[in-house]
Design goal:
253 residues; alpha/beta; 15% strand; binds 2-phosphoglycolic acid
């Protein structure tokens, strides 16, 4: 059966010392809380803090993940970080196709597909983001948009490969805006995504796929969102920068 997952996406926040403090606080506080048996907590800091995060995660109950990866294997790609490098640093997860990367760094579905391939080749589980912008929702195009992102980014995979993928539905209008999708809107889209996966790979694979919600998820709304049958957790931005908020979300199942 699929896992509950709460993943913290720190984005481009925290200095080295602040990152150390936050990881330390998360580790210490995780010792004291009881999480559901099937709950996986993941911390995705900026690249320079991956080793530190991996060291903390060895001693704690969370897994380490990256926020991005190159779509190329290795070589002359200045500034890029490869999946092989992430694997050599024991990263278990990596976010791919976040809307900020799609919007500011021109990441297309084709690039997302190549990044996913790189990650799977190096045994790292991709957390693949999808979601519509406000104009698309207002035009009632959200289902078409998400279907296209998922189809083009993921449906070239075999069923076995797809089994490693985590999906994050993040309506772009809800990211960092304080405006959350209603539990009904989240459930409706998550059920739609699961039906797409079932159509392509069968019910068993679909039932095993963790589909996370992201977009202004916080302690005050996590319980309501996670109570939906197809919402298996969250990808948390702003609220993952405070240990108490992040762990309170992780305890919301
Ligand atoms: P937010 O970000 O929780 O700050 O809205 C979520 C995300 O972008 O992953």
């Amino acid at each position: 059966m699929r896992k509950h997952i709460v993943a913290g996406n720190w984005k481009m926040n925290k200095t080295f010392e602040q990152a150390d403090d936050l990881l330390n606080e998360i580790s210490e506080k995780m010792e004291a809380v009881t999480l559901g048996r099937d709950t996986q907590v993941i911390v995705c800091p900026p690249f320079p803090y991956l080793e530190m995060t991996s060291d903390y995660s060895d001693e704690s109950y969370f897994a380490a993940g990256a926020q991005n990866v190159s779509d190329q294997e290795e070589g002359a790609y200045t500034g890029e970080v490869s999946a092989a490098m992430l694997q050599s640093m024991d990263m278990e997860y990596c976010i791919v196709g976040h809307s900020e990367r799609r919007a500011y760094y021109h990441e297309t579905d084709e690039i997302v597909a190549r990044k996913v391939n790189q990650l799977l080749k190096h045994e790292i589980r991709p957390i693949v983001c999808c979601g519509e912008v406000l104009e698309e929702r207002e035009a009632n195009r959200q289902f078409d948009v998400v279907k296209e992102q998922i189809t083009n980014g993921l449906f070239h995979l075999s069923a076995e490969e797809f089994g490693q993928v985590v999906i994050a539905y993040e309506p772009v209008w809800a990211i960092g805006t304080g405006k959350t999708a209603t539990p009904e809107q989240a459930q409706e889209m998550h059920a739609f995504i699961r039906s797409l996966v079932a159509e392509k790979y069968g019910k068993e694979v679909a039932d095993d796929t963790s589909i996370l919600y992201g977009g202004s998820c916080k302690p005050s709304n996590a319980k309501e969102l996670f109570a939906n049958p197809d919402v298996d957790g969250g990808l948390i931005g702003g609220a993952s920068l405070k240990a108490d908020d992040f762990l309170s979300i992780a305890m919301s199942f």
